[in-house]
Protein: Oxygen-insensitive NADPH nitroreductase
Amino acid sequence: MNDTIELLKSHRSIRAFKDQKISRELLVELIKAGQGAATSSHVQAYSIIHVQSPESREKLAELAGGQAYVANASTFLVFCADMKRPLEAAERAGAEVISGMTEQLLVATVDTALVAQNVVVAAESVGLGICYIGGLRNNPGAVSELLRLPDHVYPVFGLCIGYPDPERIPEIKPRLPVEAVLKEEVYQEDAAEVAAFDDTMRTYYRARSSANKDTDWSHNLTSLFETKLRAHMREFLVERGFEMK
Structure:
């Protein structure tokens, strides 16, 4: 293949970092690379909060469920879906804006994910490691208050970036077989592929160098679907102006 494809296939989440700072110049280049991502109708419905204050970082680590690397990583970014900027721009241009539409929420969330993934690929291309922090949505109200997020803006996830600790780099976690996710013409069932993947993941979990355990992919999913995961998010989003009309 080529170096870009090999880089993408080698991704792993890094949770242990060296005590080495990322320069401002490099950070700006990473953000510019992120901005090169596709964006629906050129809306660019995202904002990125660079959190440097040790006190804020510690608080965010706590709000995310006690994830210490939020405080310890060289750089921590909070990626926010931001419909405030485009709504206000359209209003200044003379539009009678209609806010709170479900499609606006989807556009902003997708835009945010795309720009973040571009940042991730750029970071990994220069030897940095990353870890997404979806745990910020455990307490989105408190995160929003800490970061002073206005209406029509919500924190989608955080991102730790730093230089990996070479002694604590995890193995690459297997992905579902292509046959399970690439379907020809119409949707096809994939129970056989999932069963085979469970065997792959059981072997991986038993053999990995840290936190090894005897489980598989399907059993790992049970905790996600036996509870109403982050049931507070709908009410929170409505309160922030994402009414899902």
